[in-house]
Predict the structure.
Amino acid sequence: MSDPLHRIADAMADITEADAVAALTSLGLQKHRHQPVQKALRTPLPPPGASSDVSSDVEWV
């Protein structure tokens, strides 16, 4: 375990579970404020029953 993780574990060893949840939740929320989640671009699937010109050479083993 890295030194920063040891320090976090030591700091949280003597607090209540509710305080630990609050601390970890606030760290997670703080991270999201600084780095917003980027939506991944996705290729839309064809509608059900529609024919597709896509071919695949994948071999399942």
User: Anything to note?
Assistant: The mean pLDDT is 76.
